[in-house]
Please model this.
Amino acid sequence: MVGLALDCAVFDSVSKSCAPLPCCSAFLDSGSYLRNMASRLPKLDLNDNESALAWLDIFEASCRHGEIDKKAQRDYFISLVDIDAYLKIKTIVAPKDVSAMEFTDIKKILKDYLTPRKKLIIAERARFFEAKQLDGESAGDYLQRLRK
Model:
C-alpha cells in the first residue's frame, strides 16, 4: 500500500480511498476526544486568576475543535473540573444553578469574577511611590512588579 498523509487521513493510491490516521482517531469519536481533552487540561485553579482564565479559553477552544455543541459544553465543563472548583463555581454563580446554565453564561460570570476590578487611582499612586527595589531583585523583576 502506497500512502500519502493528507491532514488527518492517509490516501491509499491503490484503492483510491482515505482512511483516518490512528493518531487522529480520538478526534473522530466525541467520547475519545473528551478523554483526550481531559488528560491534557491541568486542574482548574480558581485562586490563580491568570491560569483560570487561560484554562477557560483552552477549554472553549477544545470544544470548538471537537465540534462539541453548546448544550453539551456545560456538562463536559462540569465533568472536567474537580470538586473544589465545582463548589466554588456554585458559590460564584448562586442563586443560579450551574447545571441549568449554558457554558457561555458560566464563562461570563467566571471571567467577571476572575478579572480584577478597576483600582482606585490614589491608592495605586501611593503604592507606586512607596515601592522600593528589593534586595537581590533584578531591574526587570522590579519593573514588572511596578507595572502590576
Summary: The radius of gyration is 23 Å.
